[in-house]
Queue: 3 jobs
Job 1
Amino acid sequence: MITRLADLFPIILAALVASVVLGPLAVRSARRLGWVDVPGSAPHKQHGTPTPMAGGPVLGLAVLACYLILRPPADAGITGMLAGAGLVAAGGLIDDRIGLSPLVKLAIQTTAAVILIAVGVRIQVTRIDGVDLALTLLWVIGMVNAFNFVDSMDGLALGLSGIAAAFFMLVTIDSAQPVLAVLSAALLGAAVGAFLYNASPARLFLGDSGAQLLGFLLAALGIAYIPARAGLPQGVSWFTPILVLGVPIFDISLVVILRLFRREPVYRAGNDHTYHRLVRLGLDPIRAVLLMHLAGVILGLIAFMALDASVLGANLIFAGVVLVGIGMVVLLGVRTRETA
């Protein structure tokens, strides 16, 4: 039975070791099967050598290994989360290999979100079924694509996911939801282990399979987290997952808003993400990644601090973060346009 933070350490270690062991095997398998990202195959692909897109199998198998070997507590919700994650990861693998149309990818992501809803993992904010179902679909599909968008540099998306998983692990222990804490711990360990191969210069890329798996599982954790079990009113906790996942949300918002403003296609790949704009402003690539990781830590800490505030104070904190985010969208949009 998981009752303490220390009970999660074996889960983290098992997932970490599994991902470290699986990394080289996945790299070799991806090369043989042709799951390789070739430099110059698209304008935004500027890496130097052909790199296997093996992140999805490494992460998925490492998390699954924890459940098969250690057999921690799980329920129907966890089963649905893993099934949905497997579906988006499989769709991502196909997309990495042969390419899928945006409509097909959207259909796969929607089906995975429906699996969550079917097992009872859904947003319940308004208590109006139609509205809450729509919010669930928007949140899940949005986060899947947000992690796909933010995966623009070695180690960036994986580091952000590890930070988010660590915060979800802490809040779910506090809310007496051990099954969610276990999944968060497994995802944290898998992300830390895979980071060994994804850090710059990367030996493997996440690909669509890895990025979408991360986005789906973190979106599902954000929905299933119930702060009321820790005695927290909804008024101070409804935005906790939004802040914990704030950097990917900011990145996709920045890209979509500025592309719509320029009347450009929203779903095309490009070099106009937060990372690229920070580099254009003069940061070297490694520090740009670290700055975004630091922002993820800061937003997670703010989310925790807001849990101890009054309802008014917590929502003022959230409003302040949103205003800062809007200001950063304007700043990055204007400054990087000037330096382009």
Note: The mean pLDDT is 91.
Job 2
Amino acid sequence: MKSIVTVFSCASVLAIGTLTSAVPTNSPASAPVATAAAKQTASLQKHIKPILDALNLQDTAKETTVSNVLSAFLTAHTAWHQANDAALKGYWNDFNHSRSKQDKAGADKALAEIDGVYATFKPEHDKLVSGLATVLSPEQIATVEDVLTVNKVKVTYDAYLEIFPTLTGEQKAVVLKDLESARNEAVDAGSMTEKSAFFKKYKIIIEEDYLTREGYDPKQARKDFAAKQKAAAAAQ
């Protein structure tokens, strides 16, 4: 699966620096190096710009700090996924297979394996949060995470409010907290498919554990909501 952004590893960047210093700038051999570096920079800027736009900091110093922190995170993120995606794909397949067989123990085992792999990326995740915290508020850091996860917290939460219109204030708070936990993990995911998988993980917790204990029937609630939408579409 593809990472958020394709960039070179630290070793590659160091190699580029060595080559550019060793090859004369007017040498044909320097052209591919310059092109590769330009592509790397352009790719990073492409993924960082929407975050800066959402933050709307209007502070050049803060924008520079945020950009540098994100650049370091995205670079490490790509290198890490290149090394770990094969194993993660296998574990996610195990999870989906177990879920289809209604094998909760097997699904839980697969999730534990996934968590174990991602534990090795935690230092980079922590550096992202601590680096952003030097210039951003917790609410602004949440905005960064929302952009990195295509606003899945709000979209999913709003859907829950429609599917379960009788949720109490306390129940809404629990649902939102779980979705924010999903976002925290999905930030580190490689592809949009995997980000969605982390949200699925927490939707299972919300529906099969929490809401079921609270007296709701999630399957029936979804059927009722689908029927309501179908009726509304037919009436238009």
Note: Residues 5-25 have pLDDT under 50 and may be disordered.
Job 3
Amino acid sequence: MLVLYRRSPEEYTSLAAAREIASSMPNAELRVIDRKTPGVFDDDGDVDVFTEFLDRDEAVPENAPRPSGTVIILFADIVDSTALTERMGDAAFRAKARALDDALRSIISDAGGTTIDAKTLGDGVLATFPAASQAITAAVAFERAASAAQLQLHVGIHAGDVIHEQNNVFGGAVNIAARISALAAPGQVLVSRTVRELARTSAGVTFADRGEHALKGIDDAVRLYEVRWRE
């Protein structure tokens, strides 16, 4: 399943909503297309998106096993990417975003995590880690890398059971992590109480209680904590 999001000044739908749709469907990929004129199918670049998707040789039988497990899930998203694109221009912003994406991937690897390439986020990244302390270490390094690139990130971390499939992850825990990231202020790292309890004595940071929050589509309120570290 291919989910297309057309970024434009009108912003007909939010990128967060597109991510929510893609994350709820097994094997779905989200592709972001930058457009300043109406319509999605308006140049050969759009055709390339479909061709690349259809030509992939990653097909897995419908009855293939779907292993599950508990992981730490980190979402990060560039703040005000649409406004930055309008102010800087498409090429300049994409160059900055690509450079930051490369830096974030390196940080994820160094911290012992895995970048979820199948979950294409446009101006963000999704990663999983085996330990909460590793995810927090990566998140702190994320913010430093973003600051060096003169950009800002929303970062959210949650822990829970997921389904692994084709270097992709699905499940309610992924959705919660995305919503926590959306609540984070620019330059802020927010984590769920589960992550805070797991990393309370091992991450080398402190946690400030930010209270309970109602998350869209989640029955129970989730208590969030801000990660604080010394520069």
Note: The helical segments are 15-23, 44-55, 81-88, 90-110, 132-148, 172-183, 193-199.
